[in-house]
Every structure is written in structure tokens, then in C-alpha cells.
Amino acid sequence: MKQTRPLPSVVEFNQILGVVNKAKHYSTSLDIFKQLCSLGVSVDYHTIQALVFSCCQLHRTNDAFAALGWNLKRAGPNIHDVHTFTQLLDGLFREDRIHKAQEFFNNLIKHNLCQPDLRMYNVMIHGLCYFGGHLITVKWVKERVDNALTLFNEMGSISPDLFTCNSLLLGLCQLCRWQEASMLLKESLDKGFSPDHETLSILLQSFLSEGNIHEAHLVLDMMHEKDIVPNLKSLAILVKTHCLHNDMTKARYFYDLILAIDLVPPIDTYNVLIESYCKHNLLDEAMLIYYQMSEKSFKPNELLFDTMIKRLFSAGRVGDGHKLLDDMRVQGHVLDSISYRSILMTLCVQDRLEDALSFFHSVGDSKLNSDTLVYTNLIEGAIRCGNINAARELFSAISVKGLKPINYTYTQLIRAFFKEGLLNDAKKLFSEMQESGCEPDDFTYRVLLRGYLQYNQYDDVAKLLHSMDGSGYYIDFVTTALLRDAIAARSLDTTMSMLIGKLAQTEEMDIPHFAA
């Protein structure tokens, strides 16, 4: 068109600007305006309006104000009317410049620059009541909603529409001012307004955020009657709320509804569903949601991976657990040490040593396996399953790894040796423990004394009792009784009686005595 001579009229260019803005290509609209100016086209009211609108939509409201100044300086068309000012107010709210918008509006009224119409009031009220997920103080929220209510009451002969009421309803519900919200809703209905999708969505989300499930379902019934489908935000909140109330059937219903209307659930919806299914041990359902989540290229966070892997291994679904562990690595996440040890311990407690060892070996030489507690848990698991050879191998692997066994590791294996009748192995391991500088504790001595008594190693019993003397150790009641039985049977020298009483005394003193 710019090659045409003579140039087309400004009306035709305005039509082009209108089409471009309608398609939301606002930057293109600005470029066209610049070309018109360079071609010397005499722009009119509608051209400047298109310029202001584009700037405001692009969050360039300062440029929109500058355009008004430029137009005034060149004695252009008078565009200082309610329509232009409303666009500028809308731009300021879009940029979250709330104070500036209120100041600008007040100046318009104070200097009688225009008479506000319904659209201007709607922009102001909606801007004050809509917070867009920003973190702001309750005091600031209250101030904004109160200002919106003041404007609402100042509308005079201008009748509000449903959009006005919806905006106020949103603000009041966010402050939990239910009585005022209820009165506003009643007034709207009395004026003949029929609640629309926005009205019912506001009510639904507000009831759900307060945990009022019954009221929320009444709103859902009303939406169903009007053939209104809840929006994605409402459906996501419905899924989360029912998960929190352990109603997985309804949670799944609303999740399926999201898919049925061809929407993509937010990642939080996937997360809360999977966590809830895991909590209820519904692992097939959890895995299904996980695969659907992966298909949408969403990635679970570390916590979700930890939860799922724990549950899968605990339920004996080792294959799925390893698959998830591989996925976790691919996505750059690492199982934390607490979760790792927890899974190993769970498997060991369930006497599933093979699964525990499989999980252990799958981690390989990572940092997770550079922890004595991991080996100790596995050794304990091997002992529980009666696999003393596996326990030996794991114990040997500790030193190979450059780690040191802890007191509990030694004691558990010593006890296992006694249980298996491997007396010499038990004695040898205790000697190694002392040589390594790992101090025995009461539990270690208890295991040794009972083991020696079991195999009639009374010289070792006497030697051990003497080594305990004066070192702050004590003997529990059961071991004390066994020792006294040995003395009574003349298996243990009677001279040990006083020493036994001395060592047993520490525990007896720790037990409170109450007067009859």
C-alpha cells in the first residue's frame, strides 16, 4: 500500500491497524505507525488510539503517555477522552502500577477531565480486586478491595454489569468476607444477572480454598445445570482438595475431566495425585499418572521420585523401582541419602535381602554407598535372613571402601557369629574391634557375656567382667540373672558375685524408686 500513489487514506491504514491489533500483533502495529509517520500520512483519532492501545498491551504505558504528549505538541486530534484514559488505566494495572493507576484516576475526576463510564469503572474495580498471584500483604489486599467497594458505591446512575460484580466478588472472597460476598451475589441475582462461568468459578475456588467441600459441590451442581464446565484452575484445585480429603475416586474423576476436555493439567496436579496414590499404596494408578506426566514432558521433582521409589521397592515392585531410579538419573536428580537408607532398611526388615542387594548394587560407587550406615543396614538384613556369608562379605567391603565399621556394625556381626555357633569368629572380631580403636559399649558387652555363657566360656566371662570394672559399663537384669545362675551352678567362681553386683548396680540406680 505504501507504494501506491496517491497514498490510501488514513481510514484504510486504520483498518489495517485494527486487524493487526485484533490478531494481538502489537509490535507490528507500532512498526506500521512509524511507517505512516515516515510517509507523512496525516494520522487521526483512531490511529493514535491504536498506538496507545498497542503500547498498553505491550506493558509500555509510559510510551503511551509519551504518545499523547507528542500528539498534543503537534496539535493532533483531541484524544483526551474516557476511552483513551481507560486504556491508560488498564495499561497501568497490567504493569501492576496500582498506586499510579489510582492517582491517575483521582486526577481525572479532580480536574474534570472526563466523566467515567461503566468500562472505566470496571477497569478500576477489576484492577483493584485482581492480584494475579502476586505475594502482597493482607493489609494491602484489604485496602485495594475497600477502594474498589468505594468506587462501586460512587457509580451513581451508572448501572454495574456482571463483570463489575464478578470483580468485587473475587476481591471479597479472597479476603474471606463471605457475608459481603453473599449480599453482593444476592443483589446481582435480584438485578436479573445470571451467574456465568466467571462467577461460579470464583465461588468454587473460594469454597475449595477454605475446605468447604459441600458448598463447592453445590456450585458444581449449579454449573452442571447451566452446562458450564469448570476451568482448568478450578479443576486442578478440585483434584488437590479431594486428594487432601483422601477421596481418590473424586480426585481421579476431576483429573480425567481435565483430560476429557483436552486440557493439560499443571505439574502440581500430577504431583499431588501421584503422592496421594503412593500414600494409599495404589501404585498402578501412581505409575499411570507418572507415565502420562512424562508424555507431557513434565519432570517430577526429587521428592516425588523419592516417594515413588520408596513405595515401589517396599511393595516388592523392584523392576518399576529400578526403572524410576534410571529415569531419575537421566533427569539429573539424585536419591538423597536418607531416602536411600530408608529403602534399604525397609527391604531388610521385610527379609528381602536380594532386593536390597540389587538396589545397593544398582547405585554402584556413588556417594550414597560411601556410608558405613548403609553397610550396617545391609549386614543386619543379611543376618535377619540367615545369610552369614553375605554379612561377612559386606563387612569386608567396608574396609575395601576405605570406611570404618561403627560399634553397632561390629556388635551385630559378633552376635550373629554366636548365634551360628561360630565362637572363634566372634572372639576374633571382638579383638579386631579393640585393635581398630572402636570402643565397645554396654550392648557389645551384653552380647559377649551372653555368648560366652551360652558356650560355657567362663574364663572369657571373668576376663570380660574385670575389663568392665571401673569403666562405667553396666550389666542389664537379664545378663545379671544369667551370671548369677552360672555362679549358683558353680560354673563361675563365687568371687565374681561382688563384681557382678557392682556392675549391675549402675542400671538399678538409674531406675526410679517410689515409696509405697
UniProtKB/TrEMBL annotation:
Keyword DNA-binding: no
Gene3D superfamilies: Tetratricopeptide repeat domain
MF (Gene Ontology): mRNA binding
Family matches, as SUPFAM superfamilies: HCP-like
PPR repeats: 81-115, 161-195, 196-230, 266-300, 301-335, 371-405, 406-440, 441-475
Family annotation (InterPro entries): PPR_rpt, TPR-like_helical_dom_sf
Stored Pfam families: PPR, PPR_2
Keyword tags: Repeat
Recorded superkingdom: Eukaryota
Cross-referenced NCBIfam families: PPR
PANTHER family: ATPASE EXPRESSION PROTEIN 3 (PTHR47932), OS10G0484300 PROTEIN (PTHR47932:SF2)
Protein name, entry field: Uncharacterized protein
The species this protein was found in: Tanacetum cinerariifolium (Dalmatian daisy)
